[in-house]
């Protein structure tokens, strides 16, 4: 009997997560003629409910078009299955006759695969294909989805800095990133020189203090007449608690099914506006929440990111033949290479941005951080030097 | 003695306002050899203070690079000169030996030029070159800056709609636009079909009611399982007051030098979040403020917009030779044509979006609105149809 592959997408969508799904599907069509490819709608929920789209015979041009489309074409889910739910998923996979299950997502997704693999006892190959704009998977140099998101925020902050040159003031842009500061650091990837913004980066890896923030902004204003700031939504105070917990009334805090605080609604922005009003009265200040745009903006899909995401999907098919595991994007000093690592090496773990990506005594990229980002997100636009 | 041209940029920057400055400068270098071209820093403030950059002999390649750079390279200003300030500007222009003053901006800028022209009594030619992402200048089919901003928001809402297909819920994006709904309408320019978002458009031209908004969202959710909404920051209630005045505590309302309410800070977003929590409890909802990105995002500079902005600058030089006035971009049924109109025809007036750009009984583009936007902002990306 022909093999059956199930593919699903989990967690927050990215600009290139469909490339991974399409890369896997085309690889199966090529290497496993006659195999069934079932795309589960809305992640493991589709497996539980038997809700599939049959990708087995889908023409390549149609698949390629889906691949070039941002967000998760199969739908996604935030469900974090408990043991009973995992039993339902396993029952669903068996009912579908699955030999392999490729689940595209972040470290929560890897954790789900690990639990399922243990419960299935070897009868099905479980593969985790990496995806996250947070770039926070261990074992990976970087993750599919990150480069496109980084390109968006690099362009956004280059643009906003030009805006604030023209009309000076303070700008704070709140960027996605719960535990890892990579995306916030990427706002500085296209910084032109010492004078240009972003001038201050605040990441979850370093404790945030409102008084120090106000001092930093004041010093930047006196030097540059403007101050452009990038803040991770997940910045935390000295006690390790998310900043939003100390700034926002408890009855307004919301949590998702994973128990994660909702971080990036407007509340954090309002809290920053208030802090600036109190600390720097009379100074023009603007706080924006970049929100979902970085993860799926159709105008900032990076070619390298697309290709790597596609290749990760193709590699996941080979990984299934090797019994499963997690696909990792590593760097050999010259290029990105795919490796298969155990699910346990990635599942539920968070890769933090190395502390030496920032200067020890300033909220700015270090040479090491700059080199990393310039390798992944090379400059795409040449700009003229403004006269102010 | 050789002629002297002063050029300045006013109001909110756009992605292509530098093209107009560069178009004027190159035209002067070409048609008026030996003429001086002085760029005033930060609008009329630079004229008052004698703060200029000499563009007379700047090499064309350097100018072209500035032209391709978003935001106002000369700096901008929100100053709205009173009569005493106008006297200082006139004195500054005379001191600089100016024969012509080309001021690039919106209807406030045209109003400044009108006052100055009257006070100068014909000794200097005053030209207003159009610029605004709001697209709200009378006498114009559309304005330089609008198409790029429209392209950004069209791409942003196409992308966010795909995101909310994958993870259903309610999305509200707050878009710049104080009095005119063109930019908010442009969020729907790349809508794929009746099923796709944005599903609801709220513009300043139509009275906003919170209960009706909640009803609209509920109806959309039951039809599409998600609801993507674009709201102008300037939406007003039945009594003509900005919505923000009825939703936000009076002590938090801020005004600029023009007496304009600060509309697009986080407060309006928070108010929408609260309205959704109250009206549709338990429904996943996300409110983002797009903020400054649409007006200057380097990744969404439209070629037509760039060319028209450049041409408007070149045309402004000819307009100066004809005694001054306002440059208008009109449409002859086949193409955009430049016309010179009196400053009084444009100064201080607001062009509203025609009511028939929206359907009479729904918050959606009409055929007429769709045709207008598709002409200006043709689709740039082909996407695949998601499976959910």
UniProtKB/TrEMBL annotation, chains A, B:
The record marks 108 as: Important for catalytic activity and substrate specificity. One of its GO terms (biological process) is fructose 6-phosphate metabolic process. Non-allosteric. The active site is at residue 134. GO terms for molecular function: 6-phosphofructokinase activity; diphosphate-fructose-6-phosphate 1-phosphotransferase activity; metal ion binding. The record marks 131 as: Important for catalytic activity. It comes from the Bacteria. It is an enzyme of class 2 (transferase). It catalyses: beta-D-fructose 6-phosphate + diphosphate = beta-D-fructose 1,6-bisphosphate + phosphate + H(+). Pathway: Carbohydrate degradation; glycolysis; D-glyceraldehyde 3-phosphate and glycerone phosphate from D-glucose: step 3/4. GO terms for cellular component: cytoplasm. It is found in: Cytoplasm. Mg(2+) binds at residue 107. Diphosphate binds at residue 12. InterPro entries: ATP_PFK, PFKA, Phosphofructokinase_dom, PKF_sf, PPi-PFK. Keywords: Cytoplasm, Glycolysis, Kinase, Magnesium, Metal-binding, Transferase. Pfam families: PFK. Its EC number is 2.7.1.90. Homodimer. PANTHER family: ATP-DEPENDENT 6-PHOSPHOFRUCTOKINASE 1. Catalyzes the phosphorylation of D-fructose 6-phosphate, the first committing step of glycolysis. Uses inorganic phosphate (PPi) as phosphoryl donor instead of ATP like common ATP-dependent phosphofructokinases (ATP-PFKs), which renders the reaction reversible, and can thus function both in glycolysis and gluconeogenesis. Consistently, PPi-PFK can replace the enzymes of both the forward (ATP-PFK) and reverse (fructose-bisphosphatase (FBPase)) reactions. Belongs to the phosphofructokinase type A (PFKA) family. PPi-dependent PFK group II subfamily. Clade 'B2' sub-subfamily. NCBIfam families: PRK14072.1. This is Pyrophosphate--fructose 6-phosphate 1-phosphotransferase. It comes from Borborobacter arsenicus. The gene is pfp.
């Amino acid at each position: 009997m022909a093999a059956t592959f199930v593919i699903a997408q989990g967690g927050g969508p990215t600009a290139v997560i469909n490339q991974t799904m399409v890369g896997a599907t085309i690889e199966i069509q090529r290497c496993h003629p006659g195999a069934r490819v079932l795309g589960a709608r809305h992640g493991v929920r589709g497996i539980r409910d038997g809700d599939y789209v049959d990708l087995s015979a889908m023409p390549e041009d149609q698949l390629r078009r889906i691949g070039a489309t941002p967000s998760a074409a199969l739908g996604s889910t935030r469900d974090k299955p408990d043991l009973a739910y995992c039993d339902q998923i396993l029952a669903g996979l068996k009912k579908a006759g699955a030999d392999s299950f490729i689940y595209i997502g972040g470290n929560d997704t890897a954790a789900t695969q690990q639990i399922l693999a243990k419960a299935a006892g070897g009868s099905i190959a479980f593969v985790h294909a990496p995806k996250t704009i947070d770039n926070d998977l261990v074992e990976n140099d970087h993750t599919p989805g990150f480069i496109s998101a980084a390109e968006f925020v690099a362009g956004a902050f280059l643009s906003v800095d030009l805006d604030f040159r023209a009309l000076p003031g303070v700008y704070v842009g709140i960027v996605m990133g719960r535990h890892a500061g990579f995306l916030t650091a990427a706002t500085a990837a296209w910084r032109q020189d010492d004078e240009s913004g972003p001038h201050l980066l605040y990441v979850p890896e370093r404790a945030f203090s409102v008084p120090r923030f106000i001092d930093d902004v004041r010093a930047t204003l006196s030097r540059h007449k403007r101050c452009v700031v990038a803040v991770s939504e997940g910045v935390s105070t000295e006690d390790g608690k998310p900043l939003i917990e100390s700034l926002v009334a408890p009855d307004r805090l919301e949590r998702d099914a994973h128990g994660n605080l909702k971080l990036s609604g407007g509340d954090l922005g309002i809290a920053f506006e208030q802090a600036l009003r109190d600390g720097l009265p009379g100074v023009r200040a603007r706080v924006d929440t970049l929100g979902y745009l970085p993860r799926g903006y159709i105008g900032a899909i990076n070619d390298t990111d697309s290709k790597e995401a596609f290749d990760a999907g193709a590699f996941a098919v080979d990984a299934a033949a090797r019994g499963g595991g997690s696909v990792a994007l590593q760097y050999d000093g010259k290029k990105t290479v795919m490796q298969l690592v155990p699910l346990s090496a990635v599942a539920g773990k968070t890769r933090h941005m190395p502390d030496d990506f920032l200067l020890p005594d300033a909220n700015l990229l270090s040479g090491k951080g700059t080199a990393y980002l310039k390798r992944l997100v090379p400059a795409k636009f040449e700009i003229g030097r403004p006269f102010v």
